[in-house]
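Hi X.,

You mentioned you wanted examples for the new student's onboarding notes, showing what a folding record looks like when two proteins sit in one file. Here is a clean example. The first protein comes first, with its sequence line followed by its structure tokens.
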Amino acid sequence: MITFGNLPHAVSPNYPKESLQFYCDPWWIRADDQQLRRGRLLWSILPHVDQHPNILIVKGRSEATEHRLADFEIQPLQGNRLPVGPDLPVAGLPHYAGEAHLVYRAKRRPALVDPTS
């Protein structure tokens, strides 16, 4: 039986011969410092794979004096056409020429620091 996740202290994992863990012993080396280095596992918020991006289109503000609230639409990104800026700008969502606000679904997942960077 293969077990994933946090293992109790007295349990040794049995990895299949087709996995990297079978050939690398020890597979996990605990690091108590907070230093960011290659091979380090950390938690990151990452977008789901194979999804089509959505674009957040700012329409403006309902109240001309209120900058904390904005009217917007979320639509699928189509082609290379970017929206124009709103008639009444919103301070929290500035519009710059040639830029867009994209919206993705994401999840907190473990990530490995790339050894090539």
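Then the second protein repeats the pattern, sequence line and then tokens:
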Amino acid sequence: MKYYKRGFLNSGEGMAAFESNVEYDTEYAGASIDANFKISDCNRQVSLDFYCYNDNDYEGAMFKLDTLAAELKEFGKKLKAANQQRIKAKASNEQA
């Protein structure tokens, strides 16, 4: 089994992107999962590894993924709330 996907994170111009890769390999160490997720923005890049060679590795990889997903969701909520405050402050300043 092999999964690969790449996509752009900017709606217009720019070079923000992600790349995800999951590959099940029966030839290395009996059976393993090689997985990573990369995020790039301008000239910065982060690569997160989710390699699984046993059940403990799998549990750790899923914990890492679930934790990141939950934080991204919370981050989105806080960003939205901050933007609403920004809009409200801007409207208040324009009326003054």
